[in-house]
Amino acid sequence: MTFQSQDPFSYPVLVADIGGTNARFAMVENETAPTRMCGKTATADHADISSAIRQTVLPSTSENPRTAIIAVAGPVTGDTIPLTNAAWVIEPLRMISDLGVDRVIVLNDFEAQALALPGYQGADIEQVGKGEARPNATKFVLGPGTGLGAASMIYAADTWVPVPGEGGHVELGPVTPEDFEIWPFIIKRNGRIGAEEVLSGTGLPRLARAVSTWMDMTRDFTTPAMITKAAEENDPVALKTLQVFARALGRVAGDFALTTLARGGVYLTGGITPRIPQFLTDGNFRAAFEAKAPHEQLMHKIPTFIVRHSDPALEGLAAYARQPEQFAVDRRGREWMLNPATIPA
């Protein structure tokens, strides 16, 4: 198997995680330097990414970046990349002109999350349940946030290969007797219930409405924060909603573990995950993860983790910036340079 050449970057490298609400920036000064955080800013506070970098990053550095590696939610399909949940349009050629960088690379946000997986250690992750990660084995990352992101990290030909996808839209059906009673009350989209329709920031209130109807109790939870706060106050609808959420997340995580044979572990990220740790560690998530007859024994050996790193996408991009040769990232159509003739074919 032959992978595209991963030529080294010119330093300093600016890495950026661009979300619908916030943009986060960090700098990698050289191949051995630690990641240096440069700040977070609201996308709504700036006309475009160049403006945000000039105001948030450049005042904190004595040397302007020569390379920019950016993670965005969604596919990269051309020279103009609109953000799904923000007004920005990423234009790499304009960034080169505006900022004086030599090269811009734009990756998928969960591709960036996958790039971080091989480097996690210590307090970066918290294990949930049993199992032991095998070295150089496939890893999977699943992130309930605004949506439900998913990506694999596969080790092949002595190289880590990040594989992003749209796994968040797989089908999610009922399994337990309780599920079968609740599921008829979940609002369908085009006749189906995809995982993201439940396991996301937009899906959690939808699930809460179904649970409240099933429990014959009136609630008006419109945001995930309202649900987690109510659960802290022992509201029965909120508690049941998060129990069902964690159980369903365990099932989906287990499906992906089987699909990819993720003996390197399944890692949970996203904005919701750190807000509901007690529902992920009480045993129900792990029980649902392992309940994959006839492969319960296999599932028992695959570990699951909560990612505790504060900026996993940035750390993944930084790992790639330091050692691009360790990762098989397809840059075709996603790399722009001051001198395009030097881009590898």
TrEMBL record:
InterPro entries: ATPase_NBD, Bacterial_glucokinase, Glucokinase. Its EC number is 2.7.1.2. One of its GO terms (biological process) is glycolytic process. One of its GO terms (molecular function) is D-glucose binding. ATP binds at A16, D17, I18, G19, G20, T21. One of its GO terms (cellular component) is cytosol. Keywords: ATP-binding, Cytoplasm, Glycolysis, Kinase, Nucleotide-binding, Transferase. It catalyses: D-glucose + ATP = D-glucose 6-phosphate + ADP + H(+). CDD domains: ASKHA_NBD_GLK (cd24008). NCBIfam families: glk. HAMAP family: Glucokinase. Belongs to the bacterial glucokinase family. This is Glucokinase. The lineage of its organism: Bacteria, Pseudomonadati, Pseudomonadota, Alphaproteobacteria, Hyphomicrobiales.
